[in-house]
Amino acid sequence: MTKLNTDARELNAVELDSVSGGFIWIPVVVVAFVTGTAIRMGIDAVVDKVTK
């Protein structure tokens, strides 16, 4: 069997994102969306209480 000419190394963030198909960023987007939704719902609840 032929030996590889480079030693194994860890993938950096860009390489990992490329081989994962972008799955690294899905939790980031989901968490941001959920946080934004929660903030908006909180603001709406406060506005409803103030205007009633």
Q: What would the principal axes of the Cα set say about the shape? A: rod-shaped
Beta-strand fraction estimate: under 5%
Structural class: mainly alpha
What gap, in angstroms, lies between the N and C termini? 78 Å
Order of helices and strands: HH
Query: What share of the residues lie within helices?
Result: 55-70%
Largest sheet: none
Mean pLDDT: 85
How many whole angstroms does the radius of gyration measure? 22 Å
Give the tally of β-strands. Answer: 0
Low-confidence stretches: none
Number of helical regions: 2
Descriptors:
0% strand; mainly alpha; rod-shaped; 2 helices
Provide an overview of this structure:
- This protein is an all-alpha fold.
- 67% of the residues lie in helices and 0% in strands.
- It contains 2 helices and no strands.
- It has helices at 13-20, 25-51.
- It is rod-shaped, with a radius of gyration of 22 Å.
- The relative contact order is 0.07.
- The mean pLDDT is 85.
